[in-house]
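As the work plan foresaw, the team has encoded backbone shapes as discrete tokens. One protein thus recorded appears below exactly as we store it.

:::
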Amino acid sequence: MHPKYRADIDGLRAVAVASVVIFHAFPKLLPGGFIGVDIFFVISGFLITTIIMQSHAAGDFSYRDFYARRIRRIFPALMLVLAGVLAFGWYVLLNKEFVELGKQALGGVGFVANFVFWSEAGYFDTAAETKPLLHLWSLGIEEQFYIFWPLLLGLAWRRRWPIVRVLWVLAVVSFLINVTTIHPFRTAAFYSPASRFWELMVGGILACMRLKPAVPNVWRSHVQSVLGVGLIVLGLVMIRSDKAFPGWWALLPTLGAVSCIAAGPTGVLNKYFLSNRAMVWIGLISYPLYLWHWPLLVYARIVKGVGIEPSVGTRVTMVVSSVLLAWLTYRFIERFTRARVGVGMLRTLVGTGAFVAVAGVAVMNGLPARHNSELLQKVTDATVDGDYYSGFSSENFGPYAVNRVGNGARKVLLIGDSHVIEYGPRAAEMARIAPERMATTYFFTYGACPAIPNVFAEQNPGCGPARDQWMAMARDPQIDTVLIGSCWNCYFTGEFPLDYVYRENGASLSLTRGDRAGIEPSLQALQAWVTELVKQKKKVYLLLDNALGDDFEPRRMIEGSRLRTLSVVGNSPTAPVLADQVKLNQRLLQIAAASGAEAIDVLGALCKDGQCPRTMPDGAPAYKDHGHLRPAFTRQFATYLDKVFLEEGGQPATAN
């Protein structure tokens, strides 16, 4: 049995998909547009639960029929998109990128894309804007829900449990997992089904409450309609990607969607806005539109080049193309397969899924992309060279979780952000070739977190607590030597993507926006912090920053067109360090001298006459991206840190 068709729900689908598409193409135009996914979750929960419960009431529910219907609904458009994305990926991607795409495609076929992207998430992860199948995370959440939900409802129906109460308990538990994990485990809260199922459950709860038709009340429907649309609009306007989302913010789109559905087709905005022909038409193609739009936008970015946003015209073209492809998919693929309900079509769809899965496995296991050469491979190897803690052990130092290498009597602590992490390979190399001289070395770091007291970014809420732990461990009498480092250029000279502020005595001064009045107080706070440690009779090193900028980005070494041919640029192995970075370097040298710390001048060690290395002697990139030295480089060439790791006496060890 199917619920009675409601045009207004297709209109609500249109709101959801249009919001997502506009956000992905023009994020500044609709900064909260990503909440369209949450609206989809509510709609799915409502419709699936209605189908299941009405079938139970009629006595004809079948798990086999349910999942067969899901395959007919999901597979046709999905497998077409996956095949198209893999084919075009072979044509335009580099080898390592193609391998990543194979992994994403396999996750999409198996409906575990959310777990795939959850496992990949990290500071050195590939940018979201270059993952063609990233949007399939939400489909993974829905399909995982479809496995768990029918079984629960069937059990509750047979046991005659109070279904609405049971569902409320489960939804509240899922919501609590969401709000309690959003700050300490933001990635988990975003991708985990445990913290997302409540959004589908509230739609299911409404469906169960509507098994017995409600007494018609025109004014109540109007109020619910206006309230629902109002909450969604409020979410689109107020919610930002840098806020703690989903968290409490997810209540706006979720309750808004529930209110719209509860209003029924007679609610004023449901009837005249959501049910109009244009909205219904977009709603009908919403699923293939969601599938097509993101890969097209991502490939436009990839083809355009690293760090270059496609023009407005290009993005408009991609959106129009995704609408056209969605309509063609709906008209000639979805309608065709839905009209054929026999076992033959079902087997064909399952076979297609198996074929795409096999293709994904082949790509993951080395099926070469079209752009396949030794030099291109060197460049792409650099971009994925990110195992900075290889050879380390994870352990606890008192209450602190740290990464350790070496077993010497002297205890060394390195604290800071990813520009400290990048020297992990050198520490591991020293432990390998000079174990008798290697100190017990702890790396205690947190990405995008400056080692400066009182500096915060709202988008990185874990930084403050992590830094408090660094500072406490640095004061521990067992620690003999402390190295303090950070991407100083990110916070004081660059346009970092996060907005950092210096807070003290109720004042909040920005480091990255406006007059950037927070820079000087932050530098003074750094000097005071270093001075405090020196006074505790510890050996303190202030690690200065390496050069960074677009000239050091490995992919900038590639020229040509991904649509035609690519080659590696054979130009200078060095690139200039920017003047403001040199100026900041001098200021940090002064801070080290004034505080009694020893500065480790990376620019002085690596650069000459204002030119810094961008490649290694074999021509391979020295950097992983525009700012991080890659493990292969620091492992061999970061000899300027040997005095931190090794006991005094003798010549610094030389890597083999």
Q: What stands out?
A: The longest strand covers residues 400-405. The chain is about 55% helix and 10% strand. The two ends are 71 Å apart (CA to CA). The longest helix spans residues 63-92.
